[in-house]
Amino acid sequence: MTLVSFGFGPVVAQAQTADTVRIATFAAPLSRDGPGLLLRDILRGDDPQIAAITAVIDEIRPDILLLTDFDFDASGAATSAFSDALADPFPTQFARLPNAGVQTGLDVDGDGFTGDARDALGYGRFMGDGGLAILSRHPIDEAAVTEFTATAWRDVPGAVLPSLDGAPFPSEAVHASLPVSSTAHWSVPINAHGTVITLLAFSATAPVFDGPEDFNGLRNRDELRLWEAVLNGAYGVPPPNPILIGNVNAEPFDGQGLRDGITGVLKRTDLHDPEPRSIGGQFAADPSHTGDPALDTADWPSDGPGNLRVSYILPSADLTIIGAGVFWPAPDGPKASLLGSDGLAAGPHRLVWVDLSIEGLR
Question: Cys-Cys with 81: which of 42, 170, 209, 306 at CB 3.0–4.6 Å?
């Protein structure tokens, strides 16, 4: 395989041998202000942000790609159109209705009103707002997909639901009806070169925008605990060759949130942390942060959360990692122009990729 350099050591240009697969996750901003608008913008072909996003994907050329901020439409027209906009379209696309934007009829945020974006099963201005989409060059066994999206928050092993002044926040009715998943939790089997690998795909709520009850912080942690329960066999036999993947919205060193959730996952012996790195993240280090900036996957303002590692790909320990990276070139690197003059042309998040060898697993 050809090796190239993005300025932080050599990386594999493309993982397309008989025994390798490149998996990527990208929290690219592919959500719009209303249903159907994403499809409109893709088909027009003149949206600079979409052009930047597709250019990054074309550069990395993953075999399997999870998008974690992609508006859902039941017809699949948007995922198909987005795939067709890439230099090498994906033959298979997968998406299902997320919790985001599905109204509960309850006052979920405790503001005394119902019907706004925060009163949905997961934050969303409309049904399907900012869902998940998987694009793949390998067959997805859709009949064998397991959805944990409807799993009740209170039923997750070890779950801690929010309370305020000793009472359930915002109400017992919300605790009784709310799923833990703010977007979706999918266990998706994919046949890669004759071996089944299973994406544990999700996008967790940001652990901010709440009050002293820490509603979002607790939910964020328990969205990870749901996957831990799956891996521990609480919902049946764990899936073959699991790969926990998505926008976790948590990191073990910096930013807000309950660190024990992500720390616990990273300590698991049945998963690998390939620690994807970039030179761009190192260049953009926040002086006040303690974590390794080369691992960061989001470029946020220093007067806000700063740069953080929030997107992860954590493969099964049974899979062999042969490469990994974050697409965040050095400011003067040859590929820096793909992110624009301010580095934000494709949004604040960076594409994360991992190359796996599945030789010997058939």
Answer: 42
Q: What is the mean pLDDT of residues 104-117?
A: 97
- pLDDT tens per residue across span 265-295: 999 999 999 999 999 999 999 999 999 999 9
In sequence order, what are the residues at sequence separation of 6 or more whose Cβ sits closer than 8 angstroms to the Cβ of residue 79?
A: 70, 93, 94, 95, 133, 135
Task: Print the SS3 string covering the chain.
Answer: CCEEECCCCEEECCCCCCCEEEEEEECCCECCCCCCHHHHHHHHCCCHHHHHHHHHHHHHCCCEEEEEEECCCCCCHHHHHHHHCCCCCCCEEECCCCCECCECCCCCCCCCCCCCHHHECECCCCCCCCEEEEEECCCECHHHCEECCCCEHHHCCCCCCCEECCEECCCHHHHHHCECCCCCEEEEEEEECCEEEEEEEEECCCCCCCCCCCHHHHHHHHHHHHHHHHHCCECECCCCCEEEEEECCCCCCCCCCCHHHHHHHHCCCCECCCCCCCHHHHHCCCCCCCCCHHHCCECCCCCCCCCECCEEEEEECCCEEEEEEECCCCCCCCCHHHHCCCCCCCCCECCEEEEEECCCCC
Contact 282, 328 (CB under 8 A): no
Instruction: Report residue 101 as tokens.
Output: 């934007």
- What digits encode the pLDDT tens for the residues 59-83? 999 999 999 999 999 999 999 999 9
Q: Which of 355, 149, 134 is nearest to 246 (CA)?
A: 134
